[in-house]
Design a protein that fits this description.
The chain contains 14 helices and no strands. By secondary structure, the protein is mainly α. The longest helix is centred in the C-terminal third of the chain and has 21 residues. The radius of gyration is 19 Å and the shape is globular.
Length: 271
């Protein structure tokens, strides 16, 4: 099996196609990092495939158990089996009506699978206005962004930031929201705030590198990308991005642009 181009590694969380092609198109959210499920403190399986096997066995032994279903659904999402994750978690909501952890997992799975309207409705039932979960507020924001409802999305990010001021994952999503509406200077400003946090991870840096590159500062974008990639891959990523931008610019007026491979950088923390 051929290895994915380096650009996928840099932009695995960046909605390049959405901005360059001037539309959200088929943009999908990426899966979250697998963590402890249901409070279980145990080592995670070594690979996504193994995680799906381990949690699948537990789920089949007791499919009505909420923790088993959430763990299996998350493993399926990380393994790229999005439709199966939706099916498992849909059944779990029927077996555990009102269980907020199951609803949250189901909503994330629906968002991964592109069922944005239903995802938003389900996530709204996974927490309440009198006891909001900042992580779910941020996920709801990503869903609204995927539906091109950017102003509404930003209100959810702002609500999340009131609970967790300066949270880099939320700031990163807010920055990408501005990127999707082509407000690149504002996107950079917000992503710089996220980048300056000690809790900023590789996704934040990748997103900042993307926006800086889209602003035409390719050398600076490459320097930021090098924090997480070898120099040759960082250079290849930025060169690819430059080529995409130039190609899109040259192709304007020649018909509708071909939809690029969906990529998204919107964070959906599970923990």
């Amino acid at each position: 099996m051929r290895q994915q181009p380096p650009i996928i590694r840099l932009l695995a969380s960046a909605a390049v196609a959405a901005l360059v092609a001037a539309g959200l198109g088929g943009c999908q959210t990426v899966s979250d990092v697998t963590g402890s499920i249901g409070g279980r403190a145990e080592p995670a399986p070594a690979t996504p495939q193994r995680a799906a096997e381990v949690y699948g066995e537990r789920y089949r032994a007791n499919p009505k158990d909420a923790a088993n279903a959430v763990a299996y659904g998350q493993a399926l999402r990380v393994n790229g089996q999005r439709e199966q994750a939706v099916a498992v978690l849909e059944q779990a909501t029927l077996a555990n009506p009102g269980n907020k952890a199951v609803l949250a997992a189901y909503g994330r799975a629906l968002a991964d699978n592109g069922n944005f309207k239903l995802a938003f409705d389900v996530l709204s039932r996974a927490h309440s206005p009198d006891n909001p979960d900042w992580k779910l507020l941020s996920v709801q924001g990503t869903v609204l962004d995927q539906m091109a409802r950017h102003d509404e999305a930003r209100r959810y990010y702002e609500s999340a930031l009131k609970i967790m001021p300066g949270e880099p994952s939320v700031l990163s999503n807010l920055g990408l929201s501005y990127m999707l509406s082509k407000e690149l200077p504002k996107a950079e400003e917000v992503l710089r705030q996220a980048y300056g946090s000690q809790r900023a991870d590789a996704r934040v840096r990748q997103n900042l590198a993307l926006v800086v590159g889209l602003l035409g500062r390719f050398s600076e974008a490459e320097q930021i990308a090098r924090a997480d990639l070898p120099p040759d891959e960082a250079a290849a990523n930025v060169a690819y991005l430059k080529q995409m931008i130039q190609g899109q610019s040259q192709g304007q007026g020649k018909g509708k642009a071909r939809r690029a491979t969906p990529m998204a950088a919107l964070n959906q923390p599970d923990e």
